[in-house]
Every structure is written in structure tokens, then in C-alpha cells.
Model the fold of this input.
Amino acid sequence: MNYRKAEAESKKSRRDYSDFRQIEKQREHSTKREARKDEDFTKRELAAKREVRQDNNYRKAEAESQKSQRDHSDFRQIERQREHSSKREARKDEDFTKRELAAKREVRKDNNYIEKLKKKVRSLRDNSDLRQIERQRELSSKREARKNEDFTKRELATKREARKNDVFKRNEAEKKKIARQDEEYRKHESERDFHRKQESRSNPENLEYKRLTKQSSKQKNLDKDRSCNQSVKNTKNKDTDFTDHEKN
Done:
């Protein structure tokens, strides 16, 4: 008993240091990752979790602890980043991605799930501040992702495929039509277009590209004019040859 008490106290004193807690957490995660490579362990772990979650007291305690943690915005941010990074790592495995998609498809077949999700999204979007935060977070994550060339190529390819669909095009046009009825949206759209033009004009690469395109278009026009003049000359020569032949 004395030994166990001393060990518990030493662990507690160590955990007061954030660096030690971080090291301990990483070690725990690495051991779990190693263990989860074994399918039997994963099955046992999932079965144990299901059994535990059937207890109402456990669920209440877990919900309260999560709620208290999420009251701190810094903790929420760290939790979110950790979740994203772990998902990114996991999605590098094709089998995991396939399993995830299959599970999502199965869940979305349930009408109750869809209704709950819609209600949740609606209640969240009623709060304009939360919508703004959500939008900023989405844009920042997209910016980060677009730094990767492969992601950008895939995104463009999917957009091209989607735009081939007539229904998608109609829906997009209707959405824009409805949005443009709002004066604020029209102002925002015009400002956005203006800023985009300014950015493109200030970019030296774009200026060089414009110069080259203008030069090539001028060259094409000159070539066309030359070919037209040549064809006119040829027709004139043919006509004169024909008239000379008639005179003779």
C-alpha cells in the first residue's frame, strides 16, 4: 500500500509539469497505435467501449468532463487541431478511407440521424457569430490544403466533373440569382471582384502572361492578314491569266 501511494504521488507530481504530461500522452498514443495494428485487440477494445457506454452514469460523467473542457477556447482549438491531424494521418491509408466512407453511407441511410443533423446545423447557424467563426475556420483550412498541389489538382478535377452535370449548373445559377437579390451580397461580390482584379494586376507573373498573350494574338492577326493578302493576290493573278488567255 505504501509503495502504491508513493508511486501515485510521484506520478501526480510529474503530471503537474506540462512537458512530462505531453511526453506521457505521446507514449500512450504510440503504444495504442501499435496495439491497434492487431485486429483482435481492436475488436476487443470496441466491444469494451460499447459495454462501458451502455452505463448512463459513465455517459453523464463523460459529457460533463467534455463540457467543462470545452468551456476553454484554447483547449477546444488544441482538441480540434489534434483531431484534424490524426484524421489526416489515418486517411493516408486507403483501407481506412474506404471503411470510413462505407460507415458514413450506412449512417446516412438512417432518417433519424439526418433529421438530428439538420436540427443541429440549423441551431448552430442561428448564431451569426458562430457562422462567421465556422466560415473563417473553413477558409483557413482550405488555404492550408491548397498549398498542396495534388489537393488543388484533385479539387479542380472534381469541380470540372460536377459542372458537367446540368442539374448542378441549374442549382448553382439559382443560388446565385437568389443571393444577388440582396444588396449587401451584390456589394460584397463587386468588392471581391475588384480586389481580385487588383491582385491579379499587381502580380508580375500575371502581367507577363498578359503581355505574352497580347503579343501572340497580335502575331496571329498579322499572320491572318498576310494569308488574306496572299490569297487576294493569288486570285487576282488567276483572273489576269484567265483574261489574257481569252484575249489570245
